[in-house]
Design goal:
Helices cover about 55% and strands about 10% of the residues. With about 170 residues, it is mostly helical. The chain has a three-stranded parallel sheet with strand order 1-2-3, with helices on both faces. It has a two-stranded antiparallel ribbon with strand order 4-5. A hairpin with a 5-residue loop joins β4 and β5. α1 packs parallel to α2 (about 40-50) and α2 runs parallel beside α3 (about 65-75).
């Protein structure tokens, strides 16, 4: 079904093998069988979501125990299918979750861009503040600034010469 839908399918023999596969390549979606070792599967989901918040896991089980699904969702699974599931159910769930993965990945990318832009802006502001500080200090006339209460918060070397006070005495 997945391959017919144009998806590449990689099979992992165990939760450890799954982690190795995920370390080697990015997956749009991981379908995990909770009927194997639920503790290990839940651990993989939790660990991967901590590393990559856009990690999307679809869990399947034949178990009727609700606690199985709850544990998977608490670990970060994004979808759940009860076995046996029809092709239509599987296809709908896959389409929904792959779309969700794409939105999450795009959001992460945009957030990364915003953080880079923010960092760049902080650098530029600091650079301009240094330039302005040097310009004010090099001015051939006294300059001082005050806060909204009228308290002097900065002044240049010419202000020190003109008024005769050192920064420690005023600030």
């Amino acid at each position: 079904l997945l391959q017919r839908g144009g998806h590449k399918v990689v099979v992992a023999a165990s939760p450890g093998d799954l982690e190795d596969q995920i370390d080697r390549q990015r997956f749009d979606l991981c379908v995990l069988d909770l009927d194997s070792d639920i503790r290990e599967v839940v651990e993989v989901i939790s660990k991967r979501r901590a590393i990559d918040p856009a990690f999307v896991a679809l869990c399947t089980t034949a178990s009727n125990e609700q606690g199985v699904a709850i544990r998977a969702f608490e670990a970060g699974a994004r979808g759940f299918l009860k076995k046996p599931a029809s092709e239509q159910e599987i296809q709908l769930k896959l389409t929904k979750l792959i779309g969700e993965r794409n939105v999450l990945a795009q959001s992460q990318h945009l957030l990364g861009d915003l953080l880079l832009d923010r960092s760049d802006l902080r650098f530029k502001v600091a650079e301009r503040e240094r330039f302005l500080g040097n310009l004010i200090d090099a001015a051939p006339f006294a300059i001082f600034s005050t806060d909204h209460d009228g308290k002097i918060v900065s002044f240049n070397s010419e202000a020190v010469k003109l008024y005769g006070y050192e920064p420690e005495e005023i600030l």
